[in-house]
Write the structure tokens for this entry.
Amino acid sequence: MDAILDVIDAALKRKGLTDAAASKLAVGHPSLLKNLRMPREGEKRYNLPSLMRLAEVLDLEFYFGPKRPTEVTPGIVTNHGPDDDAPSGFLTIPWAEIRPGSAPVAFARAWLDSHDLVPDHLLAALPDVVELEGPTVQDTLALLDTRHALRKGHGIWCLRSSGKIKVANVTFAGSVTVVHTAHSGDEPQVIDGPPGGSLSILGKVVWLGQSIPFKGNVR
């Protein structure tokens, strides 16, 4: 249990959540992590469904470690017109907003199938703000899965907020939606009830890359 708690503590710090806040998002009451930390000889302090929900909130896989990166090899295409076809075995992706043509990348059908991604639900977006830890890459391109059923637990999502497209960590817990910031010291945005007004959910981010073509001087 000590090893599991070490991973949990690192995730709490990364997400800027307290024990009580993470517990409430996971199971609806603030005592889950308190019970996990309490030494009780011979008595189980947790159940598997609770730990699974906690892992979702903390963006951990259930093996209790940082999420393992998925190898993604999209194909880059030079045909951006709406009437052009992608190379054989690849699919282009339409934009989430009104833009000419399709996104300047194509994804292998086999890769989409292996990740249970349905082309009819996929859109692409160029976010104005990337609210994630680490260096922000200019001209980031996001592949989005727009299925409403995915709005549960914790993950990286793309949303429109105050007229700007943003990529951020988002937690869905019942009727509550929490939009986290990249810096743990900043206050997250909490929406109680369906998102609306100045905030709308575009889709779950299933791939992030840099947009093409290259916007710089080639020497």
